[in-house]
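[[Sequence with tokens]]
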Amino acid sequence: MPVPPAFDLQGHRGARGLFPENTLPGFLGALAVGVTSLELDVAVTREGVPVVVHDPALDPDLTRDADGAWLEGTGPLVIGLTLDDLHRFDVGRPRPNGATARTFPRQQPCDGARVPTLAAVFAATAAAGVRIHAELKTDPRNPGLTVPPARMAEMVLAAARAVGAGSRLAVCSFDWRGLAWLRRHRPALPLCWLTDAETEADAALWWDLPGVAGSTPRAVAAAAAGDGVAWAPVWAPDFVGLSAEQVAEANALGLRVMPWTVNAPADMARLIGWGVAGLCTDRPDLAHRVMRDAGLDLPVPA
């Protein structure tokens, strides 16, 4: 299994501050800028193909139909579309003056980009050899929006193995049920335990970790522990509200801390000073400058 880099610069949805998110052009663009790993989101089509898209339904802020018209209202659920259906939609640029376009004005459009399969992303990034952090997009509150977490985990494993990329796979999720299944059945697989204020508040409902309330690092360490675990688990918290004390606690528990989604250089510099193991960012280009100033090795562009 590849050893994680000393500092992991992770491209969020590729590098969505610069390129269309969760697309092959976006992932290849992020590699050209220079990252050590790629983060992406997994949904499943009607026939059971893992594909790379953030939301269970197509986002009208990012999606045009076969005639070039922007989707209106809520888009169709991915689980209700075949792969052929899905590939009729263009996700290569944000809606003009929409939320994404306003947030990421430097994003370069790539008309004609489609929602890729997970297997296609592994194949396209094989030469670079980067690790792919695949987020299982399941939600305990809305189980009908996609397949169950264990089933999605199985599908992600199968997609990586089908193209000989099992050694480059890491799996992350806010819904820890899929991670718990993987910890039991694939203890050598690197896992990343995502948290935010909402999932922390819901811990008692589905984490089932008595005695660790009030300490998210302790909850992650308890959830990640198990016989045969062969990797240093990653805790990926929302950087907003994260404290130096929490980072120190996590490091003392043997966790690698990977905050998300950090785009401002001042925030990057502060977190690096606290001893995080990496950053998940939409702007790896800005992170390069901060890493250089901190004396960290920069990823080699691919």
